[in-house]
Amino acid sequence: MTSSKQISLSEIKTLSLSILSHVGYGRAHAAAITEMLYACQLDDCQSHGLFRLIMCAQTMLAGKVDGHALPHVAHSDNAVVKVDARGGISLLAFEKALPALVEKSRHHGIAAMAINNCFHFSALWPEVERLSAAGLAAMAMVPSHSWVAPAGGTRGSLGTNPLAFSWPRSGQDPFTFDFATSGFARGEIELYKRAGKPLPAGVAIDRDGNPTTDPQSALDGAMLTFGGYKGSALSVMIELLAGPLIDDMTSLESMEFAGGAAGAPYHGEIILAFDPVQFSNGKVAENDARAERLFADIIDQGARLPSQRRFAARARNLKRGYVEIPEALYNELLSLRDD
Amino acid sequence: MTSSKQISLSEIKTLSLSILSHVGYGRAHAAAITEMLYACQLDDCQSHGLFRLIMCAQTMLAGKVDGHALPHVAHSDNAVVKVDARGGISLLAFEKALPALVEKSRHHGIAAMAINNCFHFSALWPEVERLSAAGLAAMAMVPSHSWVAPAGGTRGSLGTNPLAFSWPRSGQDPFTFDFATSGFARGEIELYKRAGKPLPAGVAIDRDGNPTTDPQSALDGAMLTFGGYKGSALSVMIELLAGPLIDDMTSLESMEFAGGAAGAPYHGEIILAFDPVQFSNGKVAENDARAERLFADIIDQGARLPSQRRFAARARNLKRGYVEIPEALYNELLSLRDD
Prior knowledge:
Chains A, B: It comes from Octadecabacter ascidiaceicola. By secondary structure, chain A is α+β, with helices and mostly antiparallel strands. The first copy, chain A, is built from 13 helices and twelve strands.
């Protein structure tokens, strides 16, 4: 049994800031990364919370990330915000370009943010929830490394390529999902490996293209997409929109660029935002009611909306004032700071 | 064994036009519908080819569609083209608004078309391929009727909610997919029923929420989404973007509106278009090469790109000058015209 450690909400931030600063991230990057880790840890997203500080440290150790890079937001009159992360972590670039994306969405009805030249390790739901908090619907996509075989294939060509979406709901938590188009998230496989647990069947193949449930064989071989050929097609779409469309790397290229080093992949990201006011000619309230009726019909039959468990964890952790992480992880984090 | 009937390429069009005219569609609608049916039949998409003339006739018989409706394209300075189909079939509205969508995409970098108040029965790939033929990447989504249960549910709340995507490829067929987020397309279940074949396991539940492979029980009960909770989440996203976002019906509302009548569902549609020139700052050729390398890596390992079979059918049928449809369907189509 894994023993766990209680961490107060304020300690999440101080611990994260101190580790990030110690391993070489400047103040602005450390703050942007910490906000993301805090959001995930608050919601009990163990795979994208404080656990990711290990990857942040590895990424710095690999020597390619710039912990002090100043993102550059290009001026444009069109509906596309291009932001160059200049070799830093994606999150500060997102922060810097967010006001322009919100403004462009409200002005043009639909707009996109393209982040280039960034290291990426984070969940996408906190980003789309920033947009739904501003009353916009939003979608986000990133490639990763070519760990995932296409349907009918035998080796990795595609990234884990997550798709996230958030829809604003008046006076309550948004409708949000954020899923990897691989059957499993890469981070989850790493957690299974750390826990010594076998994977479910059907999520991975080994180095020879045969099905496997061993986490290490899966990490050495390839993961499979969810949903067979449909999930595979969706994953290719994400490669194209978050890669070649925006003049950035595919997961194949990103993997080559890393050259076997551990740490966060280097590539691009695309975020789309939709303004319900413009799309509905101002009829937001009556269309919100339509959406609410759909949500109610789903819940009434005993099904869940995505993220309900996460919102429940958030409410509980805010109330009790602490989160729990595995004690072994906590000790590993302390060793990162005290190196 | 089903005997089949050869139909020359020109007869596809004359047969379709004569039936549509006979059952009550005006010239402009009949032409737009025929172009779509021709495109599908040429590619051996049996479920969305001439077979759909039966649904066009049923839709007219149900008495709600306007076979002479003139779509209205609203003027806007933003990146959203709103087109009101005014109770007609969606296809003529798409045709009328397409030039504005292409122009807005090139101007703003990203743009959307929202079709309102339309009857919809068609495949989406011909629409996204019109955009990829213009050098744009494109995505299309529609709701339908609430035939599909959400993950963990027992009854229909969602439509079959297809997602289509096309990516332009220089000098060759585009990368295109068009899949229902239900495990099966509704039209496929109808074809299984006509052929007296059982469905694969895992695509439907009966009226009591139990798994079934009987096509009629599936039609009476509910279909399931592909890919479990992820496919279900994606389907909800499509409901929201192609419904409440654009001030139009969800699949639940559309089903109620039909009041049990056969024929095409009435709702909206959303199409997104992305200009690679603007997103890549003009670096289209080098980013096309990135995409081509990904496609080559997928094909090299023996996997298929989506739509390869369709493109092969198109090449063969264009060369031989005819398509084949079941003889029973051909006779049924003749009876529609000779009623």
